[in-house]
Amino acid sequence: MKIAFLHLKLSRGPVADNAVKIADNLRRAARAGAGWVVTPETALQGYFFALNDAHFERNLVPNYKIDDMLALSRELGVLTFLCCGEYNPATGKSYNSCLAISPAGEIVGRQYKMTGHDVGAEAWSQKGSTLAAFYYERQKIGILICSDSWYDKNAEAAKAQAVDLVIVPAAWQDFDCGGGLPEKAWQRCSLISGAPVWVCNQTGKTPTMDLGTAKSAVVVNGMTRLAYNGKEAILLFEWDEAAGKLLSESFEVLPLA
To answer: Model pTM?
Structure first.
């Protein structure tokens, strides 16, 4: 099975431009043979969207319709991990979310970010309380959004739920924030959870944050097996789904034109 990470510059938005960019690269990834496509944290709106727009609520899903994205996953026959800001009418709260969209165009999994800043770029979002692992076909998948993968308790929750895979969508600079580089957290998460960890990060330099050195990575048994940072690209690799085994020795990099 071929997997694609969309290692893109998305953090400044706006949402309409990001939606087009994600859709275009979903199509490119599918043409390259990808069956699963992962986007980085808050890919749809852009990580800083709430700082750029006083009326940011209009850009939250479902106010911002993602019917086209659902239809595109169905058209392409891919499992899409779409990261976005989302409003939940049942709780009356907004969340930093990752939606798993099946090849049938249905949302089959949803995870809310459980950690993060209470001020600045993430002040708009409430925190999720639990790891909501879900099954897709025969794989049990846990999603830990960005800094969620930093905390051992979340890796322990993944282990307790016997996940086969941890996916980490991120907007995470490559710097030591007081306890080591992000890569150390992903390696630790893999060791504690007993599962491989896939990290899809952003790139690009903005006035607010430099993600130019931010890594996307595949970590297996606590060891980083694949890593990439730099210019925007689709990152492809082969994965043996049945065995939970990495088949590629390096990312296949499709640069953006």
So the answer is: 0.96
Which pLDDT tens digit goes with each residue over 215-232?
999 999 999 999 999 999
Given a cut of 80, whether residue 163 has pLDDT beyond it is: yes
Does pLDDT of 176 surpass 80?
no
The residues facing 94 across adjacent strands are 87
Task: Quote the radius of gyration of the chain (alpha carbons, Å).
Answer: 16
Tell me the torsion sign for CA atoms 98, 51, 65, 233. negative
Using alpha carbons, select from 231, 230, 248 the residue that is nearest to residue 239.
Answer: 248
Residue 178's pLDDT is what? 67
Whether 30 and 22 have beta carbons less than 8 Å apart is answered as no
Please identify which residue in the block is written with the tokens 């689709």: 234
Cβ atoms of 216 and 227 within 8 Å: the answer is: yes
CB atoms within 10 A of CB 219: 27
Q: Round to whole Å and give the CA distance between 111 and 198.
A: 15
Q: Beta strand 79-88 with 252-255: parallel, antiparallel or unpaired?
A: unpaired
For the stretch 123-160, pLDDT in tens is 999 999 999 999 999 999 999 999 999 999 999 999 99
Q: How far is CA 251 from CA 28, 157, 238, in A?
A: 16, 29, 9
Q: Are strands 216-220 and 197-200 parallel, antiparallel or unpaired?
A: antiparallel
- Position of tokens 């990752």? 98
Distance CA 122, CA 249 (A): 36
Domains in the chain, ordered, with CATH? 2-255 (3.60.110.10)
